[in-house]
Amino acid sequence: MQKRIRPSSSIRCDGVSRRGVLQLGQLAGLGIGLPQMLAFSGSPCPAENTNTRQVAGSKAKSCILVWLDGGPSHLETFDLKPDASSEVRGPLSAISTSVAGISISECLPQLAKRMQDFAIVRSMTSPLGEHNLGAHYMLTGYRPTPVLTYPSFHAVGSQQLGLLQTDIPNNIAVPEYAVGGGRFDGAGFLPSQYAPFSLKADPAADDFSVKDLQPANGMTLNRIERRRQFAQQLSQWNSAGDATLQESSSLNQALKMVTSPNAVKAFQLDDETPETRRRYGAKTVGQSCLLARRLVERGVRFVTVNQRGWDTHENLFTRLKEGYTGAKTPVGLIPSLDLAVSALLDDLKDRNLLDETLVVVMGEFGRTPKINTSGGRDHWPRVFSVVLAGGGILGGQVIGASDSVGESPLERPVTPADLVATVYTALGIDPATIVSTSSGRPVRLVSDEAKPVLELFS
Amino acid sequence: MFASILLQFLLCLPVDAAISPVDFDTQVMPILTKSGCNTGACHGAAAGRGGFFLSLYGSRPDDDYDQIVRAMEGRRIDAERPELSLILQKPTEQLSHEGGTRIELDGPDHQTLLTWLNQGARRINGRRLTEFDFKADNSNAEEGNQVVQLHALASFDDGTVEPVVPWTVFSANDPSAVEISESGQATILKAGRHVILARYLDRVAALELLAPFRINQQNAAVQNFTPDSVDAFVDRKIQQLGLQSGPPADEAPIVRRLSLDLTGRLPQPADVDSFVASSAADKTEQLIDDLLRSDHFVEFWTFRLAGALRVPGNSPPVYYAWIRDCLKNEVPFDEMARQLLLAEGELQSNGPANFYPAGVQPKATAELASNIFLGIQLQCANCHDHPLDQWTQDDYHGLAAIFATVSRGPVVANGSGYVIHPQTGEAAIPKIPGGRFLSEDSPHREKLADWVTAADSPYFKKAIVNRTWNYLMGRGLVEPIDDLRSTNPATHPELLNWLAMDFGNHQHSLRHLIRTVCLSNAYQRSCSPPTATNNKSTTKPAKSETEQNVFADGSNASPTELAQFYCVATAKLLNPAVFHDAVNDVCESDNTPRERHVSYAAYRNSDFARTPVGRCEIGEDCSVDQVAIKDLAVQLAFVNGELLNDPIRKDGGALTTAISSKIGTEELVNLFFRRAYSRTASARELKFWTKQFHEATSPDESKLIAEDFLWSILTSNEFLTNH
Questions:
Q1: I need a surface site. Which of B22, B414, B504, B508 has the fewest CB within 10 A?
Q2: Cis? peptide before B267, omega within 30° of 0
């Protein structure tokens, strides 16, 4: 068994404790705002400090979000209605799982064998049925307002929990972070350094590599350091006037990565055996989950795996199951997801990392109970399902239920705000923590109405 | 059955019946809306809730009455004992209700509902709402006056006018800035401009509250207000908010700003020099006119317009060429819209016909057309009536039905297509959005084009003006720029109206519009805030929320607010194509022919769209307008990629040429400062760079330092922004 690789002996954290964040109001009165506080973030401090902020009893140190972009059909994945009429039931049948009484889609046979490892929430409910709005609510716990873009939970977590390593960005999106229509950058009102590093490269491609990660021809460490110094000087003198553009943190991170063999190594999927790569499935979602595992092994806190194409307004059967019309072996969205997530759970378990890695599988909403005239389903936020595993989540259970046609929550409705509060709780972040926008506005991580789903935890 | 219920009540409840009758449409419905019964999250969803269906925000009282009184064999009302009716017992939570307590037991709303039930739950042809008036007793909060009373007045067709605050739902766009009580008292917690929405029956209205940061003693601009220029409107708002406008930009930055905004190119250093040297009083106006007349203007705005029109990269060249010809020949914008909407013919030979590409559904064309020509989000009305605007499903599918009358391939108006209206399951009737249904034989697209471009059309001109303003000023008067609606008011509504009118009065000329904006002081201001000194630290400390609560005492607006009200100019990140061209213009030696990225060739080259700075996926809106410099992938490309390193090092490029000609350090530094920043280096900068260059121990080392110098110029905010 491998242990979590901690590549650097001088481990840093962001140096801002939760208490420190809570005190920002007072500091702001003295003219010190969040950006200045964050500028202190370079100071080395012991790794243990990164845990002092965690709520007692929480287990997760990292989180892998498998984002099903476009809104996955709950009725074809984790909440089938085999007894409903055919227009509701749809083309797929349910199969039983390793846990008696729970059945899921026929396209998820691998996950069905691992039902004991994950939990399903079948009573998610949101009023927002538009991609950008729904994604914002699911990822931030706040419904969007015209005056404030909230940060995603991975940006917040990345800020609150600090670093476990220093070479690789703490928040990464694979293959890219275009979620829910793509208008959302993930950082919201937090400084952009907490936005996910969007790879913009497909791990399933033969020539996969993170573009421009290898030092360019003629570049030496000395020169890179010189460029950093020059850039810093110019940034200080910047006369363009817009303070929001003055952050050089992404440049610093880029320079750090370029000079780090660890960072380069993390993205080398060729290091994995062909057998391992095959287990995850050849599709983008599979190889992205494999990369996510490699990153989490190296101490990256947050990885978003973005599987696109779930906006199945038409040809649901082909897109969800077959992949292409008449496929002998189904290679659609659901079978690809099945291979990817089950291999991910297996590997995390094998490495004793599942307990400290929260895995969340979700999209922005569900799909309409009735199949439409194009053989698809339209947006349906009223009730849908999400899956959680690892990080202290008790597997083998179903939370809540939808009604007989998958139209409304029947019991235990869970809002996106509740879900985000649950994620924070799993990561040991107090959902009542107050953070500050750049203009000094105090914002609670989730509203006080949001309650974590505590029965999910063991 | 209905008649018998009525009869019973008339017989057994004479006392209640004697009270003036409760009107379903205007007294019962507002209670349902105020209590949240008909929101999209509850019974107002397309699929209802718990089997009980209400129209979203009460848009269809006929259906709602039917649901309450007749559906389920009338089980929602109890004729014998009205107080036990489900419609009362559920929202008061006397019976278990998933939505919780929505109506207070024995409260006034409960009493009104009970009276209505006692009177027989009738829906007589009562009065109709004709006008909803939403105002505040003082929308300019004065010093110390942080509480404002909101008024909501409903006028009905029977002549009655009633205050309806208790049944109006108020919401502030920034709930942390304005608190609104049940009785309609708005307490302002923060200085600034705040928008409050009020919903009553099917109407939504917006109100702007201005809470000044500072009380101005001299309100000259407000008092002597003549609405005849951009600045009149902008300055009045600055005054009203107790803000101060910043200084004008220096001359050299103005040349750079105008050149980049109008032609997408950095100015030639020599042109900057001659502008600064000129003593002509109207030299800025001259420069604007020269730039507007240039071919580069046509090339750049064609590129922009093609992006806004979502011209696919693989569309026939005639489409892009048609846009270019329109701009070159000053075809009025309303005429361009007509040509697109009414296009017919072959895609390969007729540019505007490509507005109807093969295989694209009429609904998609309706969404694109409403977005571009009207600046609205009509797609919200696909599945339900638009909750924040007047648009209905009839409008959405009616507009799609107009476009369905065109067959594609070659575009032919054969009138045979249709779209299915989801409410009726039948072909939607062609309809002008927000207007009339079209009769079967009328030329539908003609009617639509007439309506879109009509002199009194409320949308078309504003949509174009707002988009153009956004290009030039770095933000729309309405944000997002394609979401014009009464409930998303402009920061400067009168300015938007005036510019739209002025645009219409000048043949819908883009050049006239650009000229008008660029000539304003608002456009020509510096990016530095008014209080900026020459000290190193010009950024003001962030004020805490609590401090800002005590406003009107001189507390400061945030940089965002200063920019939002045009006290300072906004530094705009360069467009990705402009960025590529600018890099080449800095790095190439003079007279080297270079490939332009603001060009048709680059527009249709999908490889270009997917470079790190201009990334977008095929099939998405590729009109990316800013380089995402905060993006780590872009920074990696900057540090390590060929993106900057190749042009910097290029043999025969400006840097290698300068080095081999052995020019002095100061000359070299200024060569690139002038190209990239349109200015020379300050003494401090020169000192810094001279020191760096002198650290070189060999000619080779010296060359590498020069490369790193140029690299840091190209990655600096001063280069990457138009400021």
A1: B414
A2: no
- B212, B551 contact by CB (below 8 A): yes
Q: What is the mean pLDDT of residues B302-312?
A: 89
Which of A142, A143, A230, A434 best tests the B interface by mutation, with the highest count of B CBs <10 A?
A230
Cβ <8 Å between A25 and B711: no
Half-sphere exposure of residue B548, counting CA atoms within 13 Å on the CB side?
Answer: 26
DSSP conformational letter for A152: P
- Picking from B617, B712, B723, the nearest residue to A241 by CB comes out as B723
pLDDT at residue B12 is higher than 50? no
Query: B449-462 b/e with 16+ CB inside 10 Å = b?
Result: bebbbeeebebbbb
- Least confident window among A77-91, B473-487, B628-642, B701-715: B628-642
B596-605 long-range contacts, CB within 8 A, separation 24+ = B596/B299, B598/B264, B598/B265, B598/B299, B598/B300, B598/B303, B599/B299, B599/B303, B600/B302, B600/B317, B600/B320, B600/B321, B600/B324, B602/B577, B603/B303, B603/B306, B603/B307, B603/B311, B603/B313, B603/B320, B604/B313, B604/B314, B604/B320, B605/B313
Q: Cα B616 from chain centroid?
A: 21
The reply to whether A240 touches chain B by the CB within 8 Å rule is: yes
Which ranges in A30-126 belong to alpha helices (H)? 34-39, 86-89, 109-113
Q: What is the pLDDT of residue A59?
A: 86
ipTM of the complex: 0.80
DSSP A174-202: ES----TTTT--S-TTS-GGGS-EE--S-
Tokens coding B110: 């409960």
Give the pair of three-digit tokens for residue B86: 């489900």
Q: What is the CATH T-level fold of the domain B129-211, as seen in this structure?
A: Immunoglobulin-like (2.60.40)
According to DSSP, residue B351 is labeled: G
Secondary structure, 3-state, A14-45:
CCCCHHHHHCHHHHHHCCCCHHHHHHHHHCEC
Residue A178: per-residue pLDDT: 84
Contacts of B597 (CB under 8 A, 6+ apart): B576, B577, B578, B580, B581, B608
What are B333's two structure tokens? 């914008």
Q: Between the CA atoms of B525, B531, B535 and B540, what dihedral angle is there, to the nearest 10 degrees? A: -110
% helix / strand / coil in chain A, to the nearest 5?
A: 35, 15, 50
Q: Rounded CA gap, B286 and A237, in Å? A: 32
Q: Is the CB of residue A221 less than 8 Å away from at least one CB of chain B?
A: no
Helix (H/G/I), strand (E/B), else coil: A400? coil
CA gap A49, B187 in Å, rounded: 43
| Residues contacting residue A82 through CB under 8 Å, at least 6 positions apart | A89, A93, A94, A103
Q: State residue A293 phi and psi, 5-degree precision.
A: -60, -45
Range(s) within chain B of domains with CATH label 2.60.40.1080: 129-211
Give the C-alpha separation, B158 to B125, whole Å: 11
pLDDT at A168 over 50: yes
DSSP symbol at A312: -
Residues of chain B in contact with residue A32, where contact means CB-CB under 8 angstroms, are: 541
- Contact status, residue B449 vs residue B339, Cβ threshold 8 Å: no
Backbone phi, psi, residue B461, to 5°: -65, -40
Of B571, B632, B638, the CB nearest to A169: B632
In chain B, what residues touch A212 (CB-CB under 8 Å)?
A: 612, 633, 636-637, 639-641
Radius of gyration (Cα) for chain B, nearest Å? 31
CA B463 to chain centre: 9
- The residue type found at A14 is D
d(CA B671, CA B539): 30
Give pTM, 2 decimals.
0.82
Question: Do you find a cis peptide bond into A175, omega within 30 degrees of 0?
Answer: yes
